[in-house]
Model the fold of this input.
Amino acid sequence: MAAERGARRLLGTSSFWLCCLLLLGRRAPGAAAARSGSPPQSPGSGVRTFTPFYFLVEPVDTLSSRGSSVILNCSAYSEPSPKIEWKKDGTFLNLVSDDRRQLLPDGSLFITNVVHAKHNKPDEGYYQCVATVENLGTIVSRTAKLTVASLPRFASQPEPSSVYAGNSAVLNCEVNADLVPFVRWEQNRQPLLLDDRVIKLPSGTLVISNVTERDGGLYRCVVESGGPPKYSDEAELKVLPDPEVTSNLVFLKQPSSLVRVIGQSAVLPCVALGLPTPTIRWMKNEEALDTESSERLVLLAGGSLEISDVTEDDAGTYFCIADNGNETIEAQAELTVQAQPEFLKQPTNIYAHESMDIIFECEVTGKPAPTVKWVKNGDMVIPSDYFKIVKEHNLQVLGLVKSDEGFYQCIAENDVGNAQAGAQLIILEHDVAIPTLPPTSLTSATTDHLAPATTGPLPSAPRDVVASLVSTRFIKLTWRTPASDPHGDNLTYSVFYTKEGIARERVENTSHPGEMQVTIQNLMPATVYIFRVMAQNKHGSGESSAPLRVETQPEVQLPGPAPNIRAYATSPTSITVTWETPLSGNGEIQNYKLYYMEKGTDKEQDVDVSSHSHTINGLKKYTEYSFRVVAYNKHGPGVSTQDVAVRTLSDVPSAAPQNLSLEVRNSKSIMIHWQPPPPATQNGQITGYKIRYRKASRKSDVTETLVTGTQLSQLIEGLDRGTEYNFRVAALTINGTGPATDWLSAETFESDLDETRVPDVPSSLHVRPLVTSIVVSWTPPENQNIVVRGYAIGYGIGSPHAQTIKVDYKQRYYTIENLDPSSHYVITLKAFNNVGEGIPLYESAVTRPHTDTSEVDLFVINAPYTPVPDPTPMMPPVGVQASILSHDTIRITWADNSLPKHQKITDSRYYTVRWKTNIPANTKYKNANATTLSYLVTGLKANTLYEFSVMVTKGRRSSTWSMTAHGTTFELVPTSPPKDVTVVSKEGKPRTIIVNWQPPSEANGKITGYIIYYSTDVNAEIHDWVIEPVVGNRLTHQIQELTLDTPYYFKIQARNSKGMGPMSEAVQFRTPKADSSDKMPNDQASGSAGKGSRLPDLGSDYKPPMSGSNSPHGSPTSPLDSNMLLVIIVSVGVITIVVVVIIAVFCTRRTTSHQKKKRAACKSVNGSHKYKGNSKDVKPPDLWIHHERLELKPIDKSPDPNPIMTDTPIPRNSQDITPVDNSMDSNIHQRRNSYRGHESEDSMSTLAGRRGMRPKMMMPFDSQPPQQSIRNTPSTDTMPASSSQTCCTDHQDPEGATSSSYLASSQEEDSGQSLPTAHVRPSHPLKSFAVPAIPPPGPPTYDPTLPSTPLLSQQALNHHLHSVKTASIGTLGRSRPPMPVVVPSAPDVQETTRMLEDSESSYEPDELTKEMAHLEGLMKDLNAITTA
Done:
């Protein structure tokens, strides 16, 4: 804490002060710290902290009675304790000499023997608590009203009355509102006990419901308000026996408008009298109130409504409706809800320097809207040039001076109450920096944010300060840099200015360093100002320039605003505006300009006027307009008036109601529905509708019905059976009736439908399953003489009783949502009416799997005749079909049965297409209009299921929505990388790491795999990174055999069926340091030293030769490598020529019979690839390729839809290649490929697994001893093919060949050429081939016959991996053209046996030509290397 840091600075002082400061820092701040936002000041910080000073308790409004005692509570917190004083009606009370008022120790005010008389009310009024701390400031509390109950006076008294038993009685006793709490009732001079049947209303009136004979007697009310009780007149209540005759309904007590504050209770009285005894019910804004189930709404005795804990939502119009079966009466009252002021934003503490401008923010709410005033140290802030109210409630203080320090309070007040909130202003010295965090108050870390105090030279005064531009309300100042700093690039400047003769100075800072001009705005015309400029550098503020005296220009004398502007409507289309001559004319007025604008628009129009009034015609009916006037004189336009708003008069509607529809209910009634006219044609408030109807056969006999209010439907009853009727509707305003709709016809039923039994079974049920929903459609029962009220749909997995949904009788389809994919659902459909449910109809369906990629969902339903006509006159479109065009576009087509057969649109109808997706579930519909029978929906999400429906609109009629069609957009490559990539080390295996991630947020399809890139150089080209493929949707992967204590960088890329997405950001991970079990003399040892063995230890003193090219692991390359490489390459060239000659000799001696045997032994899938002999016929020598960089590339294309082409040349250790013994050539004919199944632990990266998906990657090496070897010796004829299989010999090598194989991974090429063999072994962390260096003296002995670790291993013996790789050779850091290295897969056992039986093989001339051309290309590559 700040106090603790201060204590540490004072360790050299006494231990007493140290303990005190530590206790201060550890003391719980409580409410004080919470409100002040600051601990005590830190010694030596130079910043005074804000002092906690606030009210713990404030006085509240109090009601008292004459002669009683009252306490107004008040308590304030501060250190030291504040002095408490009281104000009454704005004047301080002298409590020293007052014997009835005294100040309690906590600051509360105690008043004894309250005085209250007709002409002497010394105690009643508004009280305010004032707290003051010397040398700190003053704060004031909210004001509290003390009300003393007035002398008892009765506004009304009970009167004698008679009432029939069972009815309600009302006895009035109305007194002043402040006396109501003191009113009680007596019956026969005995106190009357109140209960649920006998209540006292808030006005004092007594209500007795369900009167009995015991309620008869003499009643009076008593007021006891401190003095002697005052009694009203007595009135007798007589209870009469029930006459058993009816009487009219009348209100004994009606509700009256009421105003209540949020949280209070409201009682709306309502008592009715009549026979039979009426029942009371309530409505609010035409909605029935449920008083039985509501906790806040209670029906009191007699029918009065009590609302407890009133909220803003309770405001509105309440209707009390009394009904006794014979007649109904109603009364209404308005409930207004008010709210006390409440702070949305309170002022906050502020640090500032002198001359600065500050703003205290204060945002309040309340009902009515509160007014805001500001108080500084208990005194009202009067707005002036330097104290301004901005943005309605905020206080702006301009040009601070030291005396502005103190406490500022925002006081909000309305009719309901008042509230206050305050903040402290502290003005710091100029050499003390303002704390930057937090912005408005200090915390315990404030001292860490203060600007450091540095010492150094301060700038001198700026030179040549001049006013380069002087206007009426602004001045532009310019100056030159100080003489002490002629460049001044890092200097900032402050311009101080004030009015002449005013001590308060303001400041304006330049916007960026080096700027030497500033414009001072908001000045007064014809006023003298004093300016000075001061420069600042990093050490502080320098000298001030000499004062500059400048006078602003006088302002042109323009007219002021025209007073008394008024506007009033003279007709539905005209408004007259009047005004008077401006008071400050400043010259002769030449003319006026009247501006007007329709409310809700931003287009203002104007008209020139020469008089003081003008009438504007041609306005819209019943539309609100705003007007303002600007006076012009010879200098130009003056000040505009305030806007005045007025609405044109109403008129009859100019359009008919919309969407008129008829619904035949039974044989004697028809329901009419309609919508109001368009808002622009209503021309006023719609007060009702006029319905006219007639029989179609008697058009002259018209019946008229009026519907009041905003009702939009009406049931016409008493019609004749089987008769056609015409209907039309017109809207009403107070001005009259508007145009009517066209006549619309409907025919009543011949006979009413039967509802004495349940409906029959629906005639058909169809289901269409989707992935997570099922579309259900049906037709009604064949027997249409039975009433159908609706349909019940049951569904569930295996049973239809899990869920039940009920739909309307007019509905013919329903979509069951949120189902599980690939699940079997049983669905049942039953029709029901008021008697019960009919016989069910069963159907089952299996939802589609998630992988369903169907493009079009076409679903058409032609619903048969329905017994009850659909009220919508237009038929919905049918045959809605969704055709997927791309990942974001779907074409919707449909048919319209209301069009002719050729489906040609000749009228003005249009179609509305709506669509949505259910992911997320709350997605809203989107709509578009079309004038043809198709629409192209674009901008959709990839791989997303959408549902579409269409409706048709013609004039004012619209159809219902059509059946839905569904479509899933095509997939798209992922557009976002995998998320949350993390790398952790595997426990117990420091060389193995685990990579975890989350799928991309925008996968745009099913993720089929991931590719992990990693490298030790984050800035390396992406093709130089090692690739780890991950098949499927796994979200974790292991990578092993990494270098210890090495930083690696990882990126991940997701893929779906469309291709690869973007890469994630690089994530760094450093492998752990080696422990004792991991350390070895040469961790990078290589070669084949036999199973379970390793290379001889070269000793700790051995240092490999240095070169300019090092591997990522630090293995240097010998400077003699280039010479050795040339020798080896020349040797390889010579050997290759010999191989070509030998092959040519052998091939020319083969017969066609041998060729046929060879073809029978090995066939490709398409018959175009042939096996070219066996090891007995051809003995190609081992081709050793020693180079610095080797890479594998795919030829033509990879089976991957989006292959990754990476180029990863990496130097490697000189000991990674094992020399070949000459004895190997003699045993070549005995060598064959040896494939051994090899699987690592789950999700572990293996070499075989990496080759399965990686088109090109680095050759792995490992420090562990080799375990097995692979030898490839067949020839290959590489020809592209769509699908092929590779045939080659395959048997176990009895000697364990010391060579390695390249496993094929491409299905585009076959293997058949002689393959160079290379002896390699896995290494880490970035895989590469190595160039042998000159061996040291006394080289170790190697056993070439020992088995070595395979470069790649097969999953199973007969599992073929087809692949073509390309190795590109480079020397001295330069890349070369690629050289194909083709590796066949193992053939089937049967084919291998057949090939071994063939002792001879031959070549055709065309095959020899192809092979020679390939070898010639290889020789060109080798020659290019040697010439480099």
Residues 1121-1148 form the longest helix (28 residues). The CA atoms of residues 668 and 720 lie 6 Å apart.
